Each structure stands twice: as structure tokens, then as C-alpha cells.
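dude i think i finally got it to work??
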Amino acid sequence: MAAGAPILPGRYEEPRLIGRGGMGEIYLARDRLLGRTVAVKLLAERLAQEPELRERFQLDGVGIRRSLERLGVLLARRKR
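look at this
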């Protein structure tokens, strides 16, 4: 990430690091478009260049969404 660049894109306010793992970091932030607090997981820059790791990261997100749906949690998401 470039020096001075925001951690998260402009739609997220006041990001706060809440976790760090082998594939990246997780931030808690206010999503201005959804009007609520969300968790955002970012893939580490060093791993983002590897297509297989990017796919694994995306599949991880799909797995999390499915787990939440089984618990009856609906996720609101806007298309980019």
C-alpha cells in the first residue's frame, strides 16, 4: 500500500484494526453506504499477487457468508 494511502476505500469511516492473521487483516469500520458498522477483511498485499491465494481468500468469504446464513443472518451488500 502506498504511503499515506487510506487503509480502506472512502466508503468506510474510522477503520480500526481488530484482527490479524496469515492471510491479512480485519478492520471494524462504519460503512457509509449501508449506514452500519461492518467487518472488512483485507488480503495482505504480498499475497494478492498470487491468483490461487486470491481465490482461496474469496472462497473463505463465501464460506463465512454461508455459515452466517445457516444461523439466520442476512447480509446486506451493495454491488460495486
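The chain has one domain: 12-70.
im so relieved honestly
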